[in-house]
Every structure is written in structure tokens, then in C-alpha cells.
# Entry
Amino acid sequence: MTIAAIDFQTLANAGFPLAQYAPGDVIFAEGDPGDKMYVIRSGEVEILLDGRVLEVLKSGGIFGEMALIDGAARVATARAKTACEVAPISEKTFLFLVHETPFFAIAVMRTLAGRLRRMDQAL
# Structure
């Protein structure tokens, strides 16, 4: 069975209020509470751990979803690499999307699994 792909960019253009960041701005820091995930509408975002860049995400990418799933504090820092616009997705909206669009949940899980695999390979 083939699972339909979710275009996260559609979420970024769905009318959610956008947040804008300049290059170098911290979107969230390691240890912050995780009350939102983000979809990148434009620009690039770096994910850092202990000051080291783990990943650079581009338009249509998501980040911050792990804290919404497990309710724990942020484990990494997200920083704007370039000027960027992101659509914050609240926990309430996230839960609605998971409930109403099961393929959304699969897409988020695939994103997490891909990151875990890349981290395993890097180690």
C-alpha cells in the first residue's frame, strides 16, 4: 500500500499567521518548552545541538514536532540561517491535523524516522 505524501508547504500557505525571522535569529533554544511545531514557508532554518549544525531545512520543511509529540522540552536549537517565514502550528492544531488527516501523522513520523536514520549514520 502506498501512503500519500503530505505537502507540508500547503500548511505553510494555509492562512496560519506567519512569523518572520532575520538571519541568526533564534526561533527556539534547547531547553525551551515545546508548544509549537513549525513549517518553513520560505528561507532556511538550521537545527543545532551544542552549537553544531545538525541539519539545514528549507521551504516546506518542518521542525519542532518532537516536543509536541512527547511534551518534553526542546532538545536542540532552531536558528534562521537566512531571512525566513515560518508557520507556527500549535499543539491544538497539530492534534486536529493528526485526528482529521491520518496521512499528516504518517508524514510527521516519516520525517522523524528520516532524521533518526541520518543521526545514526552520522554516529
User: Anything to note?
Assistant: Helices lie at 8-12, 65-70, 91-100, 102-122. The first strand starts at residue 19 and ends at 21.
